[in-house]
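Example 474, ligand adenosine-5'-triphosphate.
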Amino acid sequence: MSVSGEVQASEESLPHRLTSKTSFLSLKLYVVIGILLVCAVAVFLAIFLCVWFSRNSRKRKMRVKHSSGMIPLVSKEIVEIKALGRDVNPEKVEVKIGNEDLKEAELEVGVKGGNRSGESDVSGGSRSDASVDPENIGWGRWYSLKELEIATRGFAEENVIGEGGYGVVYRGVLPDGSVVAVKNLLNNKGQAEREFKVEVEAIGKVRHKNLVGLVGYCAEGAQRMLVYEYVDNGNLEQWLHGDVGPFSPLTWDIRMKIAIGTAKGLAYLHEGLEPKVVHRDVKSSNILLDRKWNPKVSDFGLAKLLGSEASYVTTRVMGTFGYVSPEYASTGMLNEGSDVYSFGVLLMEIITGRSPIDYSRPAGEMNLVDWFKGMVASRRGEELVDSLIEVQPPPRALKRALLVCLRCIDLDAGKRPKMGQIVHMLEADDFPFRSELRAAREKDPNPSRADVSTRITHSSNNGGGGEIERSRWR
Ligand SMILES: Nc1ncnc2c1ncn2[C@@H]1O[C@H](COP(=O)(O)OP(=O)(O)OP(=O)(O)O)[C@@H](O)[C@H]1O
């Protein structure tokens, strides 16, 4: 046979072979080939999917590890920032904790870690490179003692801002030029490093424009330090009680701005976080001010953080004399109502310019709360206003503020308003007048407009605004 004849014979035999039966279940060859092809594709797909899944799950695991590391992203104290309560404006929330948290953490690693990595030489240690240290990943960062030493010029005397119950506070400048306040915590021996980090993480995640932001911490050996954003205009106590000349720069409007901002910060702690955070030490020296008189509440979370067995710390946890609610002082029972009481005292201090306890005053005026209640009860509310305020507040605004004070210090903690309600009361132009008008109309259907005002009297035995009597106040 010729070559062309052989080719032709083989071509002719191919379809024949394909349709011929095989020994495998007597299936035809093309069916067997088809089955084999399908099996091969299936195996290939299975291998591909396995590889893809395993890669992804490894990535996921790495993310969780990096995000939490030694420190849980969310501590047991502050689990999650949930949808805010009705009284808290969502615009005030700067950081959301929960699913968004991871993104936040990753973002910070990218920005902060990346920026700082080149600064390790300046700060004197490779630990300053946040991009390679998983412990630096999260809301802020871990600072080495060396870094903070450099930032504060060796914790120099001239960089001391002040000293409080928790320790000395220094002004520091980080290599990137940002100014911070470094709080060198006293008496932290009872605090295990890991526990310290967990609690600090929790505080660090809380972000609000009226709360001082925590940017990082240092835990090296026995040293524990907190690094805060620097608030550059002193604290409210200094402005209220310091030497400011014949007239205070804190006008009535500025004082109300400070009161409202403080209330918003506390409302966020109470109503915007789950579980809520009780400050426990609301007072004027813990209200820091910026150049535009925006208030920032400091030291929140510290009572919990430093709540060790040390008696010194325990004393600190009890709050500050003059601001502490009666039920907290007598029973140690603590809830956000105690903060509301302290806020009431703070508001009295803002209005009057007087300290909660002032032994330099006559006996009847030493205790601000008692004196304040007595003055309101005897209708001498206008005399309560700080004489350093050059322009007197409108009577309506003053009455509003006085009423809020009295409601906050109600002896019955359950009757005190929530911080969110306080924000509304202080902001609302018509508080308390709409309800007063209604009450007045019910009494007298045709009152002259000028007659309708509010008289707030307070029976001396109820301790607060429980028996606030509202009627006409000419
Ligand atoms: N982030 C900050 N920015 C600027 N100054 C600060 C900052 N934190 C604290 N200070 C200042 O440091 C000083 C000490 O503050 P600290 O909070 O330790 O004590 P305190 O509030 O005065 O008293 P206590 O510890 O009893 O609450 C205060 O003058 C305070 O205004």
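Summary: The chain has three domains: 13-62, 92-229, 236-471.
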